[in-house]
Design a protein that fits this description.
- It is a single chain.
- The protein has three helices and no strands.
- The protein is mainly alpha-helical.
- The chain has two domains: 8-72; 74-122.
- The mean pLDDT is 79.
Length: 122
């Protein structure tokens, strides 16, 4: 179920901006905390900068640098179970069709051999 619905991870310019800006902001805050040892002040500065970066990313998204299509919705449990049941029914049919083709190929090769011709190489 999960494999079919991981097409869209928010791989957009605004999402990447937000991710990288938060990494930079919190890394800088961590460095400042190590140097200055004022945890509360630098945490508040980083939190404020994170909010500003989130607002900028929101503006970027509204400007067209975000997701262009709606996020795909996963199927309901009933839809997924019906899909899985359909695939399970299709697998034996595909296997039997493949086995029938293989049997025909073997029979054709055997007929060629019995006629004195060489079997074709596959």
């Amino acid at each position: 179920m999960a494999d079919e619905h991981h097409e869209d991870h928010g791989n957009t310019v605004s999402a990447w901006f937000l991710t990288t800006s938060w990494i930079v902001v919190w890394t800088a805050a961590a460095g400042a905390i190590i140097v200055d040892e004022n945890v509360v002040m630098w945490s508040l500065v980083a939190l404020g900068a994170s909010v500003v970066c989130a607002a900028i990313a929101g503006i970027m998204k509204k400007a067209g640098l975000g997701r262009r299509h709606p996020r795909p919705t996963p199927p309901t449990r009933e839809e997924w179970e019906a899909l899985q049941a359909g695939q399970r029914r299709a697998e034996p049919a595909a296997k039997s069709a493949g086995a029938a083709e293989e049997a025909e190929a073997v029979a054709g090769d055997a007929a060629e051999d019995s006629a004195g011709e060489t079997a074709s190489v596959r």
